[in-house]
Every structure is written in C-alpha cells, then in structure tokens.
C-alpha cells in the first residue's frame, strides 16, 4: 500500500487504516471506504466516532466503522481529515441495528444513522459527566410493581426480563387504568434491579405525561430529574443531545421518547416498552420509512432485549406475535374488565327512532345520547363528546349495510371517477389494481347499491351549548388540547386522540359520526376507529358508578361488539384471520413502488422474482400521497407487490438492487419504495 502525504503527516503506528462510512445520501455509494489515520488522530478516531473525510474533492461527514492494520484497496488512500468528536456514538450494537433496518426497508445506512444519532453539540458533550460504571443486576425475587396487583403474570415477565431472558410480553390496559402510572411503576421496578428502561410513545403529549409519572415513581425532585430523561424534538437540539448523552453514558436509568428513541444505545438496557403501536406517528415520514414497532422487534431479536407492547387496544400485527407464540399476553385477573368497563350502548335496529336519527342523518345526537349527557351532568360529572376531524377523503360504501366497497380481484377499495347527482357514483374502478367494476355486489349483504361515505363532521360546541344552557362547553383539538378537566359539570368536545383526562372519570362519553372513521378508504380504518373509541371510552367511570358510552355505529357489527364487550383482543384475532383470507398485511407483506410510468415499466421489465409476488397496478398515486420531485412528474403512479412472508428477504434484496442500479445510472426520475405502507391506497 502506497500513500502520498505531506512530510508533517505520518500514519498511526497501530491500526493505521480506518474503514469509514461517508454520509453521502446516494444508494450506490452506501458502503465503507478506507482512509489513513494520522498519528495525531489515532487516539480519537475510534470505531463509532464522527469524522470528516474528503470524497470526490469535497469534505463530507462520516463515521469510523473499524480500524485495521492494512487495506484491501491497492491504490493510494486519502487521509482522515478531522475527528469531529471523540464520542463513540455509533456503537457496534447500534450499527448492527442500523444495517438491519436499512436492509429490511430497502434504504441507505446513512439515512438510518440520521434517524438514530442526533446532531452533535460540543457544549453538551462537555457538560455531561463521563460514562457511568455498570451498576450490576440485582438478583433475588422480583416484587410485584405497585398498581399491578390485578396482573399477577407480570411478576413472571419481570423475573425473566431481569434474568437476561429475552422475554416478550403484550399488555392491554384495562378501562379506567392510567397506563402512564402503570408503565412508570413497571419501569421503576426494572430500574431498581440495576438496569435501564426505554419507554417509547407516539407524541410529545404522551412523552410529557409518561415522564411526569416516571419521575414521581422514582421519588420526584432531584432523583426524578437525574434518573429520568425524555428524548423528543420538542426540547430543542442541544437539550436533546445532552439528554441522549446522559442516557447513553448510563446516568439516566429510565428514558422516555418518541419514535427515534428506539435506536438509543443504552449500555445496560433491560427492557423496551412501546406504547400504542397503532398510532400513525410511529411511521417514520423520512426514508427508509421504518415503523417503530418493527424496529423495536428487530432490536429485541438482535440484542436479545426484553420487549413489551402496551396499548388500550390490540393491533393485528401484535395479535400475530401473540398467536405465533413470539410474545405472551400479560392478562388481568378474571372479572377485572367487567368491574372497570363502562356500559356501552350502540345504535341498534331494535330501536327504530335511534336508528333513523343517526343513520338518516337527521340529528347527530339521538334521544338516548342526550339522556346520557343530562344524567351525567345531573350528578356533577363532565361529559366527553368525540367528533372526527374534518377532511377525511370520501369513499364508497354499500348503500344497504355501509360496508366499504372492495374489488373482486384484489380486495382493494373501489373508487368513483365522478359522482352523478341522479345516478350516484359512476366510472367505478379499483384503487389498487385499476380493474374496472361493472357489477358491484356487496360481499357482506349482497346489495348492489352504492353511496358516498360520510365525511368528517363539523364542530358541535355551539349546538351543544344551545342544548345545555348554563353548562360550560370546552373544546380540545389539534394544537389546543386540554390535559385534564375537573370533576364538575361540563361538556368537552374533542377530536380523536385529544381527549383530556377527567378527575374521577367522565360520567358519559358520546362517540359521534362513526362512519366518518369507518368509511375511510384505508385498510386500517376499522382498526383505527376501534383504537380511538376505546381510548375515549376508557376515560369513563365504571358501569357500577353510572358510567355510560354511546356509540353511533351498528350494534351488530364486529367492531361495535368489540367495544360493547370490551374485547379488543378478540377483534384483533378475527381481523388477523380475515386479512389472512384475503391477502392483507400482516398475513402478507406489501411493497409500494411509486414513480412515473416509465420508471415503473423499467422496474417490471427488470424484476426477476415476478413469480414470487403478486403485482397489483399500476394505478394513479392515491390522493394525499406526495412523491419527492412530484412537481416534475405529470401523472405519478403506484405499483403494489404482494409478497408471502417467507419470500420477503429475497424480494427486498431484489428491489433494493433496482434502486441502487438506478442511482448508479444517475436516473433523474424520482422513485420511492416503501415496505408495508400504512396507507396502501
């Protein structure tokens, strides 16, 4: 190996070659390159550190992956220009996770690193004490965490987790139970055994709530500030990096954060908890678009770290983990749900007035709902009114039973090219495969009638103010959310997910305009509706204390019965079976390839595994989807690949090879690939 270097620069005496991954952002250059380490930087240029190197004549950022005595490259090697920071932030375990995520989601490691490692702030590095010596795991019997007396199985899970066994558990929070307090108690129990805990939640509101609960669980005051760190973009880049360093150096023992926190390289990690995996916030909007739930699963497999999924509902993906035996459910004692759940009343055909009022659209508050609200206010309890957000895209429903219309070939959503005032929807075609629909018949009831789906309702605060004079009406929505409300007569109008907690629980909850949620052209529309309903209904007092819930949905539908019986687990199992029957995720995987028609044609012409997948489309890119560089494309399209789980590894390798090949040829047309997108079409 020969080099050209100034006389003042000499290679390091020990391991002079650094293997560096430059952060170039180009798929065909997503690989390591060898550089010479000057003797002056040898103690700082350690594996995992940030460096600056010269590539194609310009200085770029990179990470040292390894050091070696010699290089396999036979030509001249460039010098490592600078060590940005001696902090080894890209640990071997984190780099392994980065590679796993990039491989599965067909992306670049440089993109995943940007998601996993926060930007550096020199002042933060100086203000945080050095790495803490390992505390060591405490042995002996595990005590039942405070507040978990009605979940005796949690002791077995904690015993396995603190013994180094990669246990995986699923916990569904009972109605009325403060999930934040329960998870904080669980985390504190693991912390007292000498281990760190990573808690991941969807948004800043949940971060604040869970952080407060964790600090109270560890004793509050200075102990709470020292032992608990929250990682989220809302605290600012400098503070976030400082807290990230405190966690990765072992000082913070309980770490609470949003989706990027799943990558945090904690040295003594004993448990990962991911709460509310059905929230869309867990889908990374930047390439390679990984889902935090699946990243947590990848990390649990690679590092053999115990993992718990918690939520108020159950997604089919988590139901599959339970069904396969990969994870085990932490069940409550028999009868607990019945004791804590409110009474739920849904629209029923047995009551003609109720069914006509809601289904006919003559009023959004039928008599039974108004009665519930008045009775709750009479006992000085607040009332929660949940209304869907505006702006949902209309879809087509069966004109008789309102089931979403589905394609006979691929089970995709049927869409109307135009709406006629007299004849209704015309020019029908599938939104996935593009097949025309000339003879629609509902698979649920056999009806041939179609109607436009219900669009999100408007604000109802003024209407309720007129109905309940003298009662305070408040709203909680978007950026104007309420955290809590007192135990006093009031009506709280909230959009889904923004419901405040009521002291002592709500006396009643009215879940209105259900079809605005159920009628969305989305594979997960029913799943999301149940999650939002059960989240709101869980804030209501138990039935024994007068708590009641009104649901404006057909009482005979499976999703309504799941809420009435408070059985989200049973619904998820049924939904999993239904999706397996028609070929929907998670029973199969789907890859969406978005781009101009010429690029999709090129992809199909060169795709060598066509016999292992089912190709759907191409069709127009769904409304609301944005493609990078879309302004340069007149008519972007989408191609869907339906893939059996066993064939996923070879298919993603082939698709990524296509992306890398286009990058190497410097193709100017933008193409995006995503694995299991939340919105299929």
From TrEMBL:
Q: Which residues of this UniProt protein bind Zn(2+) 1?
A: 398, 401, 442, 445
Q: Which UniProt keywords apply?
A: ATP-binding, DNA replication, DNA-binding, Metal-binding, Nucleotide-binding, Primosome, Zinc
Q: Which InterPro entries match?
A: P-loop_NTPase, PriA, PriA_3primeBD, PriA_3primeBD_sf
Cofactor(s) it depends on: Zn(2+)
| Pfam families, per the entry | PriA_3primeBD
Q: From which residue to which does the signal peptide run?
A: none
Q: Where is the Primosomal protein N' 3' DNA-binding domain?
A: 24-118
Instruction: Please indicate which superkingdom the organism of origin belongs to.
Output: Bacteria
Q: Provide the residue positions that the database annotates as binding Zn(2+) 2.
A: 407, 410, 430, 433
Q: How is the cofactor bound?
A: Binds 2 zinc ions per subunit.
Q: What is the stated purpose of this protein?
A: Initiates the restart of stalled replication forks, which reloads the replicative helicase on sites other than the origin of replication. Recognizes and binds to abandoned replication forks and remodels them to uncover a helicase loading site. Promotes assembly of the primosome at these replication forks.
**Similarity-based family:** Belongs to the helicase family. PriA subfamily.
Cited PANTHER family = PRIMOSOMAL PROTEIN N
Record text on subunit structure and interactions: Component of the replication restart primosome.
Q: What is this protein called?
A: Probable replication restart protein PriA
**Which gene is this protein's source?**
priA
């Amino acid at each position: 190996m020969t080099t050209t270097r100034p006389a003042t620069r000499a290679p390091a005496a020990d391991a002079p070659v650094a293997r560096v991954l430059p952060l170039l952002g180009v798929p065909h250059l997503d690989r390591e390159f060898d550089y010479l380490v000057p003797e002056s930087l040898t103690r700082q240029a350690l594996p995992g550190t940030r460096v600056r190197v010269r590539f194609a004549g310009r200085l770029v950022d990179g990470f040292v992956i390894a050091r070696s005595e010699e290089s396999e490259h036979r030509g001249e090697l460039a010098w490592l220009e600078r060590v940005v920071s001696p902090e080894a932030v890209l640990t071997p375990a984190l780099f392994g996770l980065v590679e796993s995520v990039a491989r599965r989601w067909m992306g670049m490691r440089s993109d995943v690193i940007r998601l996993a490692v926060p930007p550096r702030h020199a002042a933060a590095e100086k203000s945080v004490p050095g790495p803490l010596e390992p505390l060591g795991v405490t042995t002996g019997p595990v005590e039942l965490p405070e507040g978990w007396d009605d979940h005796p199985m949690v002791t077995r899970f904690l015993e396995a987790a603190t013994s180094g066994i990669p246990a995986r558990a699923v916990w569904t929070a009972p109605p009325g139970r403060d999930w934040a307090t329960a998870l904080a108690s669980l985390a504190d129990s693991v912390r007292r055994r000498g281990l760190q805990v990573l808690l991941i939640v969807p948004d800043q509101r949940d971060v604040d709530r869970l952080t407060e609960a964790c600090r109270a669980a560890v004793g509050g005051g200075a102990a709470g500030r020292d032992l608990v760190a929250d990682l989220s973009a809302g605290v600012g880049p400098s503070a976030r990096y400082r807290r990230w360093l405190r966690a990765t150096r072992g000082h913070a023992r309980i770490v609470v954060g949003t989706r990027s926190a799943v990558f945090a390289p904690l040295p003594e990690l004993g448990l990962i908890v991911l709460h509310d995996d059905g929230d869309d916030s867990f889908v990374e909007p930047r390439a390679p678009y990984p889902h935090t739930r699946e990243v947590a699963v990848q990390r649990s497999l690679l590092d053999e770290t115990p993992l718990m999924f918690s939520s108020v509902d159950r997604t089919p993906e988590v139901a599959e983990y339970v069904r396969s035996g990969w994870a085990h459910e932490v069940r409550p004692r028999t009868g607990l749900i019945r004791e804590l759940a409110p009474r739920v009343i849904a629209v029923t055909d047995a009551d003609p007035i109720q069914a006509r009022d809601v289904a006919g659209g003559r009023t959004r508050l039928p008599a039974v709902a108004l009665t519930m609200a008045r009775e709750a206010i009479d006992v000085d309890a607040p009332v929660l009114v949940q209304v869907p957000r505006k702006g949902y895209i209309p879809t087509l429903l069966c004109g008789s039973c309102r089931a979403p219309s589905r394609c006979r070939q691929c089970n995709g959503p049927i869409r109307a090219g135009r709406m006629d005032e007299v004849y209704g929807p015309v020019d029908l075609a599938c939104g996935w495969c593009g097949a025309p629909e000339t003879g629609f018949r509902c698979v649920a009831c056999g009806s041939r009638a179609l109607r436009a789906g219900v669009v999100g309702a408007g604000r109802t605060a003024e209407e309720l103010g007129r109905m309940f004079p003298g009662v305070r009406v408040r709203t909680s929505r978007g950026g104007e959310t309420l955290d809590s409300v007192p135990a006093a007569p009031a009506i709280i109008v909230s959009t889904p997910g923004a419901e405040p907690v009521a002291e002592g629980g709500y006396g009643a909850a009215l879940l209105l305009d259900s079809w605005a949620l159920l009628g969305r052209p989305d594979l997960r529309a029913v799943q999301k509706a149940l999650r939002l309903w059960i989240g709101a209904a869980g804030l209501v007092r138990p039935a024994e204390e007068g708590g009641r819930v009104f649901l404006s949905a057909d009482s005979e539908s499976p999703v309504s019965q799941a809420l009435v019986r408070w059985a989200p687990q049973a619904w998820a199992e049924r939904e999993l079976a239904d999706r397996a029957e028609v070929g929907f995720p998670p029973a199969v995987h789907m890859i969406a390839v978005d781009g101009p028609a010429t690029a999709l044609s090129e992809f199909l012409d060169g795709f060598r595994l066509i016999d292992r997948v089912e190709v759907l489309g191409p069709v127009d890119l769904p409304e609301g989807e944005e493609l990078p560089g879309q302004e340069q494309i007149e008519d972007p399209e989408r191609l869907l690949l339906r893939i059996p789980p066993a064939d996923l590894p070879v298919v993603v390798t082939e698709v990524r090879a296509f992306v890398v090949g286009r990058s190497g040829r410097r193709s100017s047309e933008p193409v995006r690939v995503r694995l299991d997108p939340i919105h299929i079409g």
